[in-house]
Design brief:
- The structure holds 2 protein chains of 2 kinds.
- Chain A is of the alpha+beta class.
- Helices cover about 45% and strands about 20% of the residues of chain A.
- By secondary structure, chain B is mainly beta.
- Chain B is built from 2 helices and 35 strands.
- Chain B has helices at about 5-20, 85, and strands at about 30, 35-40, 45-50, 60, 65-70, 70-75, 75-80, 90-95, 105-110, 115-120, 125, 130-140, 150-160, 160-170, 175-180, 185-195, 195-200, 200-205, 215-220, 225, 230-235, 250-260, 265-270, 275-280, 285-295, 300, 305, 310, 315-320, 320-325, 340-345, 350-360, 365, 375-385, 385-395.
- In chain B, strands 19, 21, 22, 23, 24, 25, 26 and 27 form an 8-stranded antiparallel β-sheet that branches.
- In chain B, a hairpin with a 2-residue loop joins strand 29 and strand 30.
- The chains are: A alpha+beta, B mainly beta.
- At the A-B interface, strand 9, strand 10 and strand 20 of A face strand 10, strand 22, strand 23, strand 24 and strand 25 of B.
Chain lengths: ~1050, ~400
């Protein structure tokens, strides 16, 4: 048996703890200023704090998601930041709370370890190592989960008090423990609930063990019977504690529970990395498994060995469960244990966090025994002092490596876009009543929360997905609109609905920090307003009404507001008062403190068996081998020249990440293509694919190969803002000196006709308000809405879907921005769906210009949104909608507003051939702007020149001035097309009946259509629309 | 006049109070004021002599609703000052002394015209004889009170360097007039005056009406189909039926039908009525029929354009797996500009490949990749500039 160093009097200050606090504050205090603001969550908490700072007792927040209640998250941390913000601002509050969290965590680990090991040296080491614990570093510096940190830290402080209550039944300890649980629950609701299961239950088990131990002379003598007797003796205390904490957990944040019950989370679950298979998705494995465990992985056998000793048996079971749950989707076990539903809602990384925190006491014990105790003696005697020192060095090195690696992870793999200066945006929103509309940010990352905290303007988006309310958001597994491109077609599908019908949400301004979304905005009818001085592009939509002065909100009872506003801070005050005396005593040591019961546990433990040392070594070797194999596989996968497939994939990857130098290194060395020439060729390529495409999937197949050449068919799937593109490209590869290279296809040698051209065009300008005044726009400054005429329109059904289509003409003398909204009704005039024309319309029309349009009724347009929740969203495939009645009648509302931008009309159809159902031709750009994304609006007509169908096609390559680009389109088969109604009696323009401008003239109406040889589609019409990415 | 919160409060309180039933008492009260007509903004105090010590409230009903007024007691007279916000409002004011049957009415007349409110809409018209806009005129005094009926204002218009004047009488507090469009485009400037008070300037833009048919012309540098020259299609100055040039930016669409059945299409916007479209020359000799139109409004004549062949002949050399098409020269014998399309159709036993390539220095080489084209005999058809050359059963090793 090994007897640890005798307990020192608690009169003596624990120097290691002091060092731990000192180092911890220095390390974390210095680094949070560089990391916290770029974490995932910190700015969200800052936003909540801002809410409390300006509206302490009002739980409704209008700024996100068309309004949500802050009662959906425990308020303590937010309210504390809000209180501190009155001293030095919100960020001061946030950093202060983070530092408080660090102190609480270190001291919490100390007390937890002291409770478990009854040894102040072990506790000191645990506290010191906790400072560098990679899971803590990750939670604070990468995730920024302040409430979670405060919650778990306070829970650790509560554990000794709970122990004391259970052990000796003094009411004093019951009260102190409950006061700390109250603080825990008001800072983070999940922590005490799961903490109950994973920390407090094992603790109760340990108390019963200790109680049993007091009745027998050794742990060995504790039989199940002895245990059971102790259990019944302590049963009353356990029940009292359990019942009281249940009351505390429910009572302290009662409004939260009421809100959860009233607004149950009925959303489609959002994918989270912690549910991935960590072996398949190595990045998730790194972030959610490898980093949180860190150095602990090495001594895992020791931790399990210790926790499966009799006294800690229940902790052993708990940590096993936590470890397994933390593996996410790697094994099917977590899914089986939690059930499908809970598995998809919970983020499983917290289990790993708790497992790693639970391991810290044993890490402390291990460190103490390794540095000063029997482990040191054993190793030195069996393996020599040098080996002991060396292994100590390796372990220390690994600890430092993991902390530094974790803390700087945000630098290596930025999770956020670079910091955006918010002031210009805040000023923009404050100026000229721009805050009277909602706004949306794109590509801001979590910084959107910081913008929301600084402005009074409202956004349709938000950053706390549990509070989402709009069905457009909850039916899609996306957390934010602003990063929807990372969620693939589902994200973009959701974003599209907001962009197409922004009137519904009073959404007028979009701040874009990511040009990826630009084509989508343009083709949905948005226009660029200005670029702010921080480089953010402001997009604007015309014809959107400002927000009403009174917005709807869900009110809650007064008592709930008071409870919510008072209780959290009150729990802190009570906990502080109750524990203050003891705290002071522990700090200043002015009086001898009676040893707490848990320190009286005789601390003699078994000597470390030699077999455990051997096991630790074998385990380490296994880990090293796994790492080496992993690295080797990574190397093979990434060695681009290894095979024809590898080089093709590597080439596309390089192009996708715009690493052109790297891409050039995969090109056949004998093609004599210099890097300069290649970069030049790349720099002039533009278009939907090369400028806005994001490679989603890539697959290769060797079509044919010889020893030194191979033809590879590369199937690529691209996410572009406008459509999902699938391409099958044939690539020739060649082997040179054992390495595979790509042979590029020859470039089109076409020369533009002229070196220098001049273009005359009409430009337009709209003054807006002619006087700089904050008054509403003067009557005479309001431009007349341009007159439009709906030339024809009809409701059609094609392949089970309903569409409204028609043609609209700008009959005014000024350019018009056109918005067309269609609503369909059944026979009894019950409204079924309402939506706007999106891509199938030229949104900007010059005087007398015509555009065909088509409104497709997407899922969310339907009144009953529940029917529209898709199982898997595909933008090109509609959700089959079950509805009681068929659409029969329609209403069209066209609105014109004076447009002054995006009026480029210089695209020309250079040659068009129609053979059967194949439409081929080339486009020629006769103007002076580079058309980044050309769009073809294709209308089909019957033999009587009646419009029957409209569709759009995007051309993936840009067209530079004076250059050509070929296209090929397959005409749609319209066999299933059925016209349901072409009665135009419910068509309105600018709120007035559709004018009959043309019929009021007797002149012959002229309409030019292109005849085809196809009898199904005798005539077509092509209209061109150009998106110019970089106007100059 | 803006209702302040305190006013609303007074009204509510007084309404509540007035709803209480009071026992009817009838002491002798007598109105002292003799005038019943005031000008807006006058200081109005209703003086009432009373013989009892009771102090009744005065109820006033006017445009702003009902309010109760407490009197200032002075000697035997009760003085009821009418608040400014009521006395500055023109109209009839009814009053009643509560708990008595003493009641009456006052007439408050507007003061002289202080400014003229006027509105015009729509602000743009089409040059024609039947389009019109309307001006609505509301002369008001300094308290925003409209003027009495039959007050006269003068409407003044300026268009085509001519001034017009017209007197209008106020009827039912305002007056209006219809302003007809002219058949010429320009600005119709209008204003309203009364004495030395004037409204602001209103501008109505009269814009060109529906375009009428026009003619087409063309401009090109040479007639050869080399695919590398732009051709300009120019409309005549497009006007409406009164000869007004259509608005700048009016879109004109040009349709071209080629003799081979292909279609070309382009658009251009007008500047001073003229739209100029640019098109690329074709790559083979053909004739075009061009027509431009403003959809549903106006069309041009048909214009025919002929293109002469640019290349006369080319050579084909086959070496191994390379097919080289060479000696592509243009109308002066110069090398055809880069990018001239050469098409190769290669038909094997069970394969059919269509290759397209642009020339570089008058040359094109098609390489038949062994991974695509197996050994065997192929029919090769080369087309460039409308010239077709056919090679049958070419053996490819």
């Amino acid at each position: 048996m090994y007897k640890m160093q005798p307990l020192k009097s608690s009169k003596k200050t624990n120097k290691i703890l002091i060092v731990a606090l000192f180092v911890g504050l220095l390390f974390h205090g210095a680094t949070i200023f560089y990391t916290l603001e770029t974490t995932y969550d910190a700015l969200i908490h800052l936003f909540f704090a801002e809410h409390y700072a300006s509206n302490w007792f009002e739980p409704w927040n209008f700024k996100w998601y068309t309004g949500f209640t802050v009662m959906s998250y425990p308020p303590l941390v937010h309210q504390s930041i809000a209180l501190l913000s009155s001293i030095g601002g919100l960020k001061f509050g946030m950093f202060t709370i983070a530092i408080v969290g660090v102190i609480l965590f270190i001291t919490g680990v100390y007390r937890f370890t002291l409770l478990l090991t009854s040894n102040r040296n072990c506790a000191g080491y645990a506290a010191l190592l906790a400072v560098f614990s990679s899971s803590f570093v990750e939670t604070l510096h990468i995730f920024g989960q302040l409430p979670s940190i405060v919650g778990i830290s306070v829970l650790m402080h509560a554990l000794p008090e709970i122990y004391l209550w259970l052990k000796n039944g003094k009411i004093k300890y019951l009260i102190t423990s409950l006061s700390l649980i109250a603080v825990t629950v008001t800072s983070h609701h999940v922590t005490p609930i799961f903490g109950m299961v994973f920390f407090i239950f094992p603790l109760i088990g340990m108390v019963i063990m200790d109680h049993s131990r007091d009745r027998v002379s050794t742990y060995r003598q504790i039989t199940f019977k002895v245990f059971l007797v102790s259990f019944f003796k302590l049963f009353k205390r356990i029940v009292v504690f359990g019942a009281c904490s249940l009351v505390i957990i429910i009572g302290c944040i009662l409004p939260y529970w009421i809100n959860t019950k009233n607004n149950p989370i009925t959303q489609v679950p959002i994918p989270h990395g912690s549910r991935d298979n960590f072996i398949e998705i190595t990045s998730s494995g790194l972030v959610f498994f490898l980093i949180p465990w860190g150095i602990l992985l090495l001594i895992l056998p020791y931790i399990f060995y210790r926790y499966y000793s009799k006294r800690y048996l229940f902790f052993g079971l708990s940590i096993t469960l936590l470890t397994i749950l933390g593996t996410g989707g790697t094994t099917p076990i977590p899914r089986t244990i939690l059930g499908e539903n809970a598995f998809n809602i919970l983020t499983l990384d917290r289990f790993t966090l708790w497992a790693s925190i639970m391991s810290l006491p044993m890490l402390g014990e291990f460190a103490y025994r390794f540095i000063n105790g029997d482990l040191k003696e054993l190793i030195q005697s069996k393996l020599g002092a040098v080996y002991h020192r060396l292994s100590g060095g390796v372990l220390a090195g690994l600890i430092i490596f993991f902390s530094i690696f974790t803390i700087t992870l945000g630098n290596f793999r930025p999770s956020q876009p670079p910091k955006i200066k918010m002031l210009p945006i805040v000023n923009f929103l404050d100026q000229d009543q721009h805050h009277e509309w909602r706004y949306l940010t794109l590509g801001f990352g979590d910084q959107m929360a910081w913008l929301s905290a600084q402005t009074n303007a409202l956004t349709v988006d938000g950053n706390y997905h549990s509070a989402r309310r709009l069905p457009e958001l909850t039916t899609r597994p996306i957390e934010r609109l602003e990063n929807s491109k990372f969620k693939g077609v589902e994200g973009l599908g959701s974003l599209q609905q907001f962009l197409t019908a922004p009137e519904k949400y009073h959404l007028k301004y979009i701040f874009s920090n990511d040009k990826f979304y630009d084509p989508m905005l343009y083709f949905s009818g948005w226009q660029r307003l200005q670029q702010l001085e921080n480089g953010i592009m402001v997009w604007e939509k015309l014809n959107v009404a400002p927000l009403p002065k009174i917005l709807p909100f869900q009110d809650v009872a007064q008592w709930q507001k008071l409870l919510w506003g008072i209780m959290p801070i009150l729990t802190v005050l009570i906990a502080f008062v109750l524990n203050f005396h003891l705290l002071l005593l522990r700090l200043l040591k002015y009086k001898e403190v009676r040893l707490p019961d848990y320190l009286k546990v005789p601390f003699t433990i078994k000597n470390i068996p030699w077999s455990l040392i051997v096991l630790l070594h074998i385990w380490s070797i296994i880990l090293v081998i796994i790492s080496i194999i992993g690295l080797y596989l990574l190397y093979i996968k990434n060695d681009a020249h290894h095979s024809p497939e590898n080089v093709s994939i590597a080439y596309y990857d390089a192009l996708d990440f715009k690493e052109f130098k790297k891409a050039h290194s995969y090109i056949d060395v004998k093609s004599k293509l210099s890097l300069d020439q290649y970069m030049l060729e790349v720099s002039v390529s533009d278009g939907l694919l090369s400028s806005y495409g994001k490679l989603d999937e890539i697959d290769t197949q060797i079509v044919s190969s010889t020893d030194s050449t191979a033809i590879v068919q590369v199937f690529t799937k691209w996410i572009t803002p406008l459509k999902k593109l699938e391409k099958a490209t044939i690539i020739s590869t060649v082997k040179r000196d054992g390495n595979w290279y790509i042979q590029l296809q020859e470039k089109d040698p076409d020369l533009p006709p002229d070196q220098f051209i001049s273009v005359n065009q009409t430009d337009f300008y709209n003054q807006g308000r002619r006087k700089a005044t904050v008054e509403k726009t003067f009557h005479e400054d309001v431009l007349k809405q341009p007159e439009l005429q709906l030339l024809n329109s009809k409701l059609v059904k094609n392949e089970g879907q309903y569409y409204l289509l028609g043609e609209v003409q700008n009959i005014d003398n000024v350019p018009a921005d056109v918005v067309i909204n269609g609503t369909i009704y059944d026979n009894s005039n019950k409204e079924l769906a309402s939506y706007n024309a999106q891509y199938d319309l030229k949104h900007k029309l010059l005087p007398k210009e015509i555009s065909s349009f088509k409104i497709k009724f997407e899922g969310i347009a339907w009144q009953n949104t529940k029917d529209s929740i898709p199982s898997g969203f595909d933008p090109d495939h509609y959700t089959p909608i079950n509805f009681e009645s068929e659409p029969q009648v329609f209403n069209l509302q066209a609105a014109g507003n004076v447009a002054i931008t995006d009026l480029y009309k210089a695209l020309t159809i250079n040659e068009l051939h129609i053979k059967g159902d194949k439409l081929s031709g080339s486009l020629f750009n006769a103007g002076n702007q580079q058309v980044t994304v050309p769009q073809l609006l294709l209308s089909y007509y019957d033999q009587h020149s009646n419009l029957v169908w409209v569709e759009h096609h995007f051309i993936t390559d840009a067209i530079r001035p004076q250059r050509k680009s070929n296209f090929e389109i397959k005409l749609t088969d319209l066999k299933e097309l059925k016209t349901i109604n072409s009665n135009m009696s419910n068509c309105y323009v600018n709120g007035l009946p559709n004018p009959n401008y043309h019929t009021s003239y007797d002149d012959k109406v002229e309409h030019e259509l292109i005849p085809t040889s196809n009898s199904e589609i005798p005539y077509i019409k092509i209209e061109l629309n150009s998106y110019i990415g970089n106007p100059n | 006049m803006i209702l302040r919160n305190s006013h609303i409060l007074i009204m509510i309180v007084t309404l509540l109070m007035s709803s209480k039933e009071h026992p009817y008492v009838d002491p002798t009260y007598r109105l002292i004021n003799t005038t019943t007509e005031y000008l807006a903004g006058d200081n109005i105090v209703l003086e009432i002599s009373a013989t009892t010590d009771d102090i009744p409230l005065l109820k006033i009903m006017g445009n702003q609703g009902i309010i109760l007024i407490k009197p200032l007691k002075n000697d035997a007279h009760l003085k009821y000052p009418i608040p400014q916000f009521i006395s500055s409002e023109a109209g009839v004011l009814y009053w009643k002394l509560l708990q008595t049957n003493l009641e009456g009415k006052l007439k408050i007349l507007p003061k002289n015209i202080h400014h003229i409110e006027s509105y015009v809409g729509p602000p743009t018209l089409e040059a024609s004889k039947d389009d019109f806009t309307m001006i609505t005129i509301l002369p008001v005094d300094e308290f925003d009170n409209p003027q009495l009926d039959n007050t006269t204002v003068t409407l003044k218009n300026f268009m085509d360097f001519k001034k017009e004047e017209k007197d209008l009488m106020i009827n039912n507090l305002f007056t209006f007039d219809i302003l007809n469009a002219h058949t010429s485009t320009g600005k119709l400037i209008t204003t309203v005056t009364s004495g030395n008070v004037s409204s602001k300037e209103h501008t109505i833009d009269i814009m060109a009406g529906r375009a009428v048919d026009f003619t087409l012309s063309r401009k090109r540098n040479h007639p050869y189909a080399d695919g590398n020259q732009t051709l300009q299609l120019i409309t005549s100055s497009i006007t409406d039926r009164y000869g007004n040039t259509v608005s700048d930016g009016t879109l004109v669409t040009f349709y071209i039908q080629t003799e081979h059945g292909a279609t070309r299409q382009t658009t251009a916007t007008t500047i001073n009525g003229v739209a100029t479209a640019n098109l690329l020359h074709p790559e083979k000799a053909e004739s075009w029929e061009v027509r431009a139109l403003i959809p549903n409004m106006a069309v041009s004549n048909y214009m025919k354009i002929e293109f002469l062949p640019a290349i006369k002949d080319f050579d084909i050399q086959i070496t191994g797996r390379s097919i080289r098409v060479t000696s592509l020269t243009s109308f002066l014998g110069q090398i055809i500009p880069d990018g001239f399309t050469v098409e190769a159709i290669i038909v094997g036993n069970d394969s059919d490949h269509n290759l397209n390539k642009g020339t570089l220095n008058g040359d094109v080489t098609f390489y038949l990749d062994p991974n695509v084209f197996e050994k065997g005999d192929y029919d090769i058809k080369i087309t460039a500039g409308g010239i077709v050359k056919h090679l049958k059963n070419v053996a490819i090793e």
